[in-house]
Amino acid sequence: MKNFKLLIGTLSLFVLMICGFQPITSHAGTMDLITTLVDTLGITKDQAKGGSGALFQNAKDNLSADDFKKVSDTVPDMDGYLAAAPDVKTKGGLGGSIGSSLSSLGGDAAKAGSMLDLSSAFSKLGMDSGTLGKFVPVVLDFVQSKGGESVAGLLKGLWK
């Protein structure tokens, strides 16, 4: 019986070596970002996903379609992030209205409006602008680890 167990164990190891051991990682990249944000900032998973979604929605609104596609192709489950982002522009709130108005002016005013929209989104998630400031470097590091400096650079121009 002992030899049988040894044979089964050896065969199992052999099969794993031949076939390859592939862990299930369907949304591993997403969980890496969410887990990192939760652990680093002490926020909930919903806040992490919604805050990331707000940042990615901001990128979608402010980058060219080609540049956003580069970001989207880098981030697993981009649609899930975008769906989790709180809606700040169509609710008619003061922050969204001012942010949209400033964004229409272009240049630094547009960036200020964009950041005001982000602050409003974070507020809806129960986080403050200080959390937004801590969020950005974590998301940028994640994007850089997945897509390199060129993709992260697209976002740095928006959020720094």
Would you write up a description of this structure?
The protein has 160 residues and is mainly alpha-helical. It has one domain (31-159). It has helices spanning 2-19, 28-41, 45-62, 65-74, 78-84, 94-103, 107-124, 129-159. Helix 2 packs across helix 3. It starts with a helix and ends with a helix. Residues 4-29 and 90-107 have low confidence and may be disordered.
Question: Would you spell out the secondary-structure blueprint of this structure?
Answer:
Layout: H1 2-19, H2 28-41, H3 45-62, H4 65-74, H5 78-84, H6 94-103, H7 107-124, H8 129-159
Provide tags for this entry:
globular; mainly alpha; 160 residues; 79% helix
**Beta-sheet strand percentage?**
under 5%
Helix tally equals 8
Rg over alpha carbons: 21 Å
What's the SSE pattern? HHHHHHHH
Helix content: over 70%
By secondary-structure content and strand pairing, the structural class works out as: mainly alpha
Principal-axis shape equals globular
Q: Identify the quaternary structure here.
A: single chain
**Low-pLDDT windows of residues:** 4-29, 90-107
Largest sheet: none
Distance between the termini: 65 Å
User: Average pLDDT, to the nearest integer?
Assistant: 77
Q: How many β strands by DSSP?
A: 0
How many structural domains can be distinguished in the coordinates?
1
